[in-house]
Amino acid sequence: MNEKIPNTITGRTRIYGILADPIYHVKTPQVMAEVFRRHGLDAVLIPFHVKPARLGSLISGLSAMENFGGFITTVPHKSAMLDLCDDVTDEARHIGAVNCVRREADGRMIGTMLDGLGFVIALTNLTGFNPRGKAAYVAGAGGAACAMAFALADAGVRRLTIANRTPDKAQALAARLRHVHPELELSTDAGSVADHDLVVNGTSLGMNPEDRPPLDFSMLSPDQVVADAIMDPVMTPLLKAAEAKGCRIQRGLPMLQCQIELMARHMGAIE
Ligand SMILES: NC(=O)c1ccc[n+]([C@@H]2O[C@H](COP(=O)([O-])OP(=O)(O)OC[C@H]3O[C@@H](n4cnc5c(N)ncnc54)[C@H](OP(=O)(O)O)[C@@H]3O)[C@@H](O)[C@H]2O)c1
Prior knowledge:
This protein is an alpha/beta fold. It has 2 domains: 14-113, Leucine Dehydrogenase, chain A, domain 1 (Rossmann fold); 116-255, NAD(P)-binding Rossmann-like Domain (Rossmann fold, 3-Layer(aba) Sandwich). 34% of the residues lie in helices and 20% in strands. The strands form 2 sheets. Strands 2-1-3-5-6-4 form a 6-stranded mixed sheet. It has a 6-stranded parallel sheet with strand order 9-8-7-10-11-12, with helices on both faces. Helix 1 (28-38) packs across helix 9, helix 5 packs across helix 6 and helix 5 (115-127) packs across helix 9. The two termini are 22 Å apart. The mean pLDDT is 95. It catalyses: shikimate + NADP(+) = 3-dehydroshikimate + NADPH + H(+).
């Protein structure tokens, strides 16, 4: 325990939050407490259980709270937060979702989206994979897939394939990517797994034992890096199949862990 930090909340403690519905499963309060401790901060991040219909009222209240520094948002509030913030970063605007908000001294709420950046940092740090100039296959076109696709494009991939059960959503994501990154080669050909340096699962397929595979595992080859956004189970069927083929793999949890310091920084808790 860092001696500089009181082990109780006092009148000086700075408050941060995480907003979700449900809330019981979130791990961020414990993980952020470790960051605050490491940086010697008198701060606490507490869980706020809020239903979508009352989200706007809560944000107004938090805006009035002078000792409040900001909050993290997760399911189901990420998209709705886009319109509830006073301003958002380009990342959040492009992805269409917010997962971290800073409360400015005047009460304004500034949102950003760090899922994708967390993914790329984890991927680079833990597998040594550098996306620049590479070809990446992303299964899914929901929140996680969208964030990872934009972050990979920002990190310089040359070619990106978006494969999704609902083709319209894959096409729509490809169109948004094309608008921001006109130089990027884009495809929605789900059958082209073999033709990529990086293969990513951004769908929720693999969370339940009865799920069908998110992509054709037989097309994986040992030279590919394979990543999954799913955190539970730690080893998804995709990661097991990839490891058995001799691929370098990237689990889901580091994507979240790599965001924690970025979130603390966006909320102004650390420099
Ligand atoms: N590691 C991290 O930091 C992190 C961060 C965010 C999310 N995640 C994880 O990423 C996963 C996806 O989350 P999300 O927020 O992106 O969810 P989401 O927005 O609801 O998107 C779900 C995606 O999965 C696809 N899908 C769902 N059921 C399917 C089925 N039966 N067959 C084929 N495709 C199916 C959907 O396809 P359709 O478009 O066709 O419905 C969509 O592409 C979750 O496991 C989540 O926990 C991890």
